[in-house]
Amino acid sequence: MDDVSAVAARLLERGQSGEHAEVVAESERLLREPTGDLVDGPAGLHFARAVAYMSGGDEHAALAAAELMIKAAEREESAGWLSCGLSLRAVLRVEMGEQDVAEHDLETVLRDLVDAEDALLRGVEDPWLASNAHTGIALPFHSLRLYELALPHYTAAYEASTRGSTETGAPAMWLLNLAEVELDWALELYRVELVADAEKHSRDALEYAVRAGQAAAGPDAERWRTSAGIQECCARISCGEDEPALGEILTRRERAKVRGATADLHWSAPFVAVALGRVGRSEEALDLLRETLAEANARAAWIQLAALQHTRAYLLAEAGLPGTAETLEYGQTLAHALWRQRLRTLHVAETMRSFDTLRHAHDQAARSALVDPLTGIANRRAFDDAVASHAALEPRRPVAALVIDLDRFKDVNDTHGHDAGDALLRTVAGALSASVREGDLVARLGGDEFAALLPGADAVAAQRVAQRMVDAVDALPDSPATASIGVCSTPAAALPGAITRADQAMYAAKRAGGNRVTAG
């Protein structure tokens, strides 16, 4: 974890523990340190600030902070922070859309999530950042009931967390997320009478919950064990194991109540009520549901409220009260309609993801066609395309052409083998690329021959760059190779002829002993 990520991690922990205003103030102070302007700070600190606003219930301020974070991540070219920023914006838009229909914009949310996934394809080395990026994508997919899309990201977050410190609760937390999404999926499947599928997801949830209890560590280990125990009992109840699980979950819920874990209490209530009803304690079950519904505030997820109401209707119908069977039937009709709506949303999301996957594969293939696989710099095709582009688009602009050939490269291959020769070519490519200006192009034409295009460079500037290249290759440690470079500057329209003259000048440099620059 780098320094910015470490600071962001500490701020996030404080912000999610109730210190919202303090974290906003501290993150803003740190963001202004580089230049005095809040905008110029690092993406990780923008993330901590945005999450603090969100935890404090100010979604509009959090959204503005997320926009600044996305710009900072793009400026830093950080795939991990960009993914976190995009998914955070999606989370906020989901929450705002649930509170105000005017804020509902499903297509934009899905677009952000697909773009966040696309950013992760570039790779994220830091396990902590990777965990947060994957979780950031999983959470809104979960909120949208797109369980199939949330699960792989929760799994990736867990796997990334196991590469970090083992003395934290992170692995247990991600396993609890996996158990929760499986149980939410099971609840919805039960409501649409897909019982076999629901039982399968309940068994998967049971496995994750057991593992979460075993993985609990760090200062919050007891908290994770209590949550894991509640989820394990819910999974057992969902699998029909009412008698052994009921007593245990009631005990664990008392512990959760003591530490104020209302989320665990509200989330587990439908499972406990079902178990109570099945062992003949229906009045107790209905009291629990009434109490939970009264406590659930307006910000509670509607899918959670639906689970509570559906369970209540089921128990009332079981009791044979007049009109309750019709109410339950109406509720099941709604559940089926919501399930169909979920499947339509899933189809839209998967179509967008498939399109992006194809686009990414096309972009990768296009880039691969223009990149030399050995050295990672441009290849001859890219060089030829650049020559044609300069000649067509800016025919009068000066462009310098450099043709570069290594001296004594054959000696390296003959003495040390082709692997050593390949390693030297990669090192030389890096040295040449580091010697040019921003906007210049360095390409490997084949073998030990390279070339460069320097847009806007006259003869003096071109020879200065070429000399830097000669010096850089000569300074490579443990290498007998040097470089001979031919240089020619010309209007872009005459580039093909200039390249020929630069090539001739390169051979003149070699005949003169190499390790030098010759003008053509």
TrEMBL record:
**Assigned EC number:** 2.7.7.65
Show the CDD domains listed in the entry: GGDEF
Q: Which domain of life is it from?
A: Bacteria
The record lists the organism as Angustibacter luteus
Domain GGDEF per the UniProt entry, residue ranges: 397-520
The terms under GO molecular function for this entry are: diguanylate cyclase activity
Xref: SMART domains: GGDEF (SM00267)
Q: What is this protein called?
A: Diguanylate cyclase domain-containing protein
**Keyword Nucleotidyltransferase annotated:** yes
Q: Which Gene3D superfamilies match?
A: 3.30.70.270
Q: What class of enzyme is it?
A: transferase
Q: What UniProt keywords are attached to this protein's entry?
A: Nucleotidyltransferase, Transferase
Q: Does the keyword Nucleotidyltransferase apply?
A: yes
Which PANTHER family has this protein been placed in? Answer: DIGUANYLATE CYCLASE DGCM-RELATED, REGULATORY COMPONENTS OF SENSORY TRANSDUCTION SYSTEM
| InterPro entries listed in its UniProt record | Diguanylate_Cyclase (IPR050469), GGDEF_dom (IPR000160), Nucleotide_cyclase (IPR029787), Rev_trsase/Diguanyl_cyclase (IPR043128), TPR-like_helical_dom_sf (IPR011990)
